[in-house]
Amino acid sequence: MTPKDFRAQISAGEFTNPTAGYCNGYVQANLVVLDKKYAEDFKKFCEINSKPCPLIEMVGPGTSHTSFLADNADICTTIPRYHVWEEGKMIKEVNDITSYYNKDMSFFLLGCSFSFEESLMDAGIALRHVDQKINVAMYDTNIPLKPVGPFHGYMVVSMRPIKASQVSDACCITGNSPIAHGAPVHVGMPELIGISDLAKPDYGDAVEIKDDEIPVFWACGVTPQNALQQAKLDFAITHAPGCMFVSDILNKEYGK
Amino acid sequence: MTPKDFRAQISAGEFTNPTAGYCNGYVQANLVVLDKKYAEDFKKFCEINSKPCPLIEMVGPGTSHTSFLADNADICTTIPRYHVWEEGKMIKEVNDITSYYNKDMSFFLLGCSFSFEESLMDAGIALRHVDQKINVAMYDTNIPLKPVGPFHGYMVVSMRPIKASQVSDACCITGNSPIAHGAPVHVGMPELIGISDLAKPDYGDAVEIKDDEIPVFWACGVTPQNALQQAKLDFAITHAPGCMFVSDILNKEYGK
Fold first, then answer.
1. Window B:79-108, CB contacts with A under 8 Å
2. β-strands B26-35, B245-250: how paired?
3. Each residue of B144-186: pLDDT tens digit?
4. Which of A95, A96, A141, B181 fits a 20 to 30 Å CA distance from B95?
5. Nearest-CA residue of chain B relative to A193?
6. Residues B113, B136: contact at Cβ < 8 Å?
7. How close, in Å, is residue B121 to chain A by CA atoms?
8. Does residue B144 belong to the interface with chain A, where contact is any CB pair within 8 Å?
9. Is A174:A162 a contact under the CB 8 Å cutoff?
């Protein structure tokens, strides 16, 4: 199934599930929708916090249709599930945001870790959460984000156990995926970034760390949602976790 | 002082010390000299073990003059000190190998870690052995080399303590220096590569590892000398440790 056909199914209300495992090889993107009055601050926030917030495409105000990640896809209908936020709290999950759309909205599409996970697995680096078909383990940290306007807070990281002999390769490979959170932000020693117990992730599922493995930490796409909560904006929309915008651009093509 | 002037001093017998700290910014190279009958095997050995043996230039047989790393430098006189080997044992240290030269000799110039150490320090990653002006800590490992003809053995690694927050950057930066041993071969967990006590290096000097640091291991230029010892060739010449060939090529230019 091509990404275009997949998005058509989603727009028709025929697919409302997480997008992991669909249209493999194509860039998937997280979504943040804000009133245009916050757009400049949020754009700058993404630019100076580019590991957790890798901005790929900004759409609007005045339109909800993409031009880079896909040719003229309507962001209001082509994501399986959306979260609607008021005053920093998620108040509703919906399958279509057309009824919320207005011409003052700015849409931000941000890179996600699916891109680099594919590269890691292609290089023979096993990912336990993928093998076990569970969610990646994610943790709040004490790594401060660089604040811009109302946007601030701390980085959320994802953790993958990597063999000590493959940590270096994992760093180099993901360093070549700047749109997918890039190289790790921390290697080993979780206590130094404020994580007290790896067995108790703040989001997602815990995984075993074997004797020959080191916990490696990458900036995580949950970070911008946390920054939104901190900012307590009157209104915002995001994708629902795991339910991403599936683009027409191949991971392998991006940036090459 | 330009590398050309520095090499002229060395050829004139006016400089016979280690080359670290001289002509900063320029690629320095290790030397291996073999009879041409071993040249094809050693070349292939370098190619398939490129992290410990990054071959930059092959000179001869029929000449001892470089054409790539420097314009027409005589390798027989432009290195401060050489080691002469017989039957796998170092038998003599000399300042000039002109008297040993014959037209059947092949000269191999191999990259060294000075190139990537400069890049690491430029990126704000401190190197304890440089700060303390001691030799880097080096260890024998159980990581097998891929054998070719008479050449075989195990990899020697150098270890640098790196902050957990900078390990990823250190991997990515050195991964961009393929002529200087490239990205690390192992991160943390020395016992997994046959190192029982980091405080007792097999070569060089021990350094402290602080609480927020991880020992990171890179392939080391001592490896080819160990492979030579294993091969027990009737005759070979190498540079003396620390006394390198100083080239006309800037680290920053190489491969770009």
1. none
2. antiparallel
3. 999 999 999 999 999 999 999 999 999 999 998 878 889 999 9
4. B181
5. B165
6. yes
7. 18
8. no
9. no
